[in-house]
Amino acid sequence: MPIPSAPSAVPPRVLTVAGSDSGGGAGIQADLKTMLAFGTHGMSVLTAVTAQNSLGVHGAWELPAEAVRAQYRSVVDDIGVSAVKTGMLSSTPLVETVAALLADTDAPVVVDPVGVSKHGDPLLAAEALDSVRTKLLPVATVATPNLDEVAQLTGITVADEAGMRQAAAALLGYGPRWVVVKGGHLPGEPVDLLTDGTEEHWLRAPRHDNRHTHGTGCTLASAIACGLALGQDVPTAVRAAKTYVTGAIMAGFPLGSGIGPVDHAWRLRDAR
Hints:
This protein is of the alpha/beta class and about 270 residues long. Helix content is about 35%, strand content about 20%. It has helices at about 25-35, 65-80, 90-105, 130-135, 145-155, 160-170, 215-230, 235-250, 265-270, and strands spanning about 15-20, 40-55, 55-60, 85, 110, 140-145, 180, 190-195, 200-205. The chain has a nine-stranded mixed beta sheet with strand order 3-2-1-4-5-6-7-8-9, sandwiched between helices. α1 crosses α7 (about 215-230), α2 packs parallel to α3 and α3 (about 90-105) runs parallel beside α4. The longest helix is centred in the C-terminal third of the chain and has 17 residues, at about 235-250. It is globular. The chain starts with 12 loop residues before the first strand and ends with a helix.
């Protein structure tokens, strides 16, 4: 492939506000890989550092709110942003700091209300849940909770598709424009519900027999943010993200002795 002789047009700029996964499968590492796969320019605001591998989270250290605010302002005020994705915001001060920054930013926002890791490790303080409901969700263009996070935020334990619809209505009551209730933890064919309270889109995909699914939530939310940055409407962006994540799960590979990551580069490998 020839090297470009002149600078090309600036790609859409997508910002992740999230924690670091030292194992590279989730968090900002997964977000930036996804952003590259979608042809956007990824940028990051680090909220926490985790000691993490295929077996779980072995330690987490939150950054001060002023460090998060300084990172965000330095990026947005100079470079600008086409869409924002949020992930691990482990405490009330961080949730409220980021929510205030997002409220002052003219770009679509995808909120992944990270509560627990793939291995069941808590990543959000219980006392921060109310701030997520009252401060963060109201600024979201799209919120993408899994069923564990739905239970944390709404108290609803989802057991079927009717429960997903009930949970989505409860979540929309907190103010996001759209909600994706991710039903992959239910038995049977994986299905997600995307709704704004008026439209309903049931997104189905085959279930792949692959345990290496670390980073799916981060990856989906980042992929949606990329679609929005590229000018897609919400249903189009979510469908494209679902297709990308399904392929990444199918291609997930083993690392270490636990749960390996999804393959963010699966499209590149398929193109060889």
